[in-house]
């Protein structure tokens, strides 16, 4: 499906209610899970880093799950329902979260991986409920000024929404915005996403294009590494967090539904290259099982998945 068809397909969808807002007195660290109604904020530590899952939005997808994953079998769906029961709405409805991850490093610097649906008026808000990321960052005591890295797994509407304001001002004034060069290159000169995201970041000198696997940050034996995971889009990347024997992969849209977790061969209708996407998924899942890597996903209805656990 081309970008134009994708946009046309998604436009006109109905947006439902936004995710639950937080009380003003939320606590840092593990206590956040209890302070955040419905699990809008959850955290896990990986080596010297604290990874905070932030659910920007939650909604029902504007097409049925069988339209989006046409080759999934009944057995695949049964296994997926066991893996992620929250993804199953009435009938064939696909319920999904829209999540970002903040990685808090020693010393207080923060890397944000993906930037959600964004506010009302953002491109993503035309088909998904507007997000609440600024409230979540405040509740988690994560200061926008401390974000020095924003890593975008790919340039789709629901992953970059809070990167810039609707009038084109970068939300994170001290951040480099890291995107794969091939991902920027695929956007046509006059594409709406280039105008909305890329042009404002180029204007302020904050766009940082990378090629291939790149180490982004490190502290006390823990590392943050961008790793190409193509298929969903040509320049899709994931972020590996590792240190002190723990590994976590922030996977963007390598898998968008638990049906692709239980069977990586299941294709998603909106993948740019379905064969490459399936190969990326098989490799990533096999590696995660072998090396005991937690997956931090954007759209499953719980933030952390341990595929190595039976
Ligand atoms: Zn997505």
From TrEMBL:
GO molecular function: hydrolase activity; metal ion binding
Organism: Nonomuraea phyllanthi
Record key words, sorted: Hydrolase, Metal-binding, Signal, Zinc
Family named by the database record: Belongs to the metallo-beta-lactamase superfamily.
InterPro entries per record: MBL_superfamily_lactonases, Metallo-B-lactamas, RibonucZ/Hydroxyglut_hydro, TAT_signal
Protein known as: MBL fold metallo-hydrolase
Signal peptide span: 1-26
Pfam families: Lactamase_B (PF00753)
């Amino acid at each position: 499906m081309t970008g134009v068809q994708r946009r046309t397909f998604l436009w006109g969808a109905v947006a439902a209610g936004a995710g639950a807002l937080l009380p003003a007195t939320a606590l840092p660290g593990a206590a956040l899970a209890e302070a955040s109604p419905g699990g809008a904020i959850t955290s896990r530590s990986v080596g010297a880093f604290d990874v905070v899952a932030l659910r920007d939005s939650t909604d029902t997808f504007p097409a049925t799950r069988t339209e989006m994953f046409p080759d999934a079998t009944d057995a695949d769906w049964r296994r997926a329902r066991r893996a992620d029961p929250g993804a199953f709405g009435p009938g064939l409805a696909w319920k999904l979260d829209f999540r970002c991850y903040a990685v808090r490093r020693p010393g207080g610097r923060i890397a944000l991986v993906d930037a959600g649906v964004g506010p009302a008026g953002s491109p993503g808000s035309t088909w998904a409920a507007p997000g609440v990321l600024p409230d979540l960052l405040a509740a988690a005591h994560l200061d926008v000024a401390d974000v020095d890295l924003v890593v975008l797994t790919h340039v789709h509407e629901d992953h970059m929404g809070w990167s810039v304001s609707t009038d084109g001002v970068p939300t994170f004034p001290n951040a480099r915005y890291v995107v794969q060069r091939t991902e920027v290159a695929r956007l046509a000169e006059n594409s709406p996403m280039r105008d909305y995201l890329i042009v404002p970041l180029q204007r302020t000198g904050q766009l940082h294009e990378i090629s291939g696997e790149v180490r982004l940050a490190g502290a006390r034996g823990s590392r943050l590494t961008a790793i190409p995971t193509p298929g969903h889009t040509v320049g899709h990347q994931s972020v590996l967090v590792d240190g002190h024997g723990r590994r976590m992969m922030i996977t963007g849209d390598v898998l968008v539904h638990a049906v692709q977790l239980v069977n990586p061969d299941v294709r998603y209708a909106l993948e740019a290259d379905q064969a490459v996407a399936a190969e990326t998924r098989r490799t990533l899942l096999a590696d995660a099982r072998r090396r005991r890597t937690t997956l931090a996903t954007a759209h499953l209805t719980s933030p952390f998945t341990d595929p190595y656990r039976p």
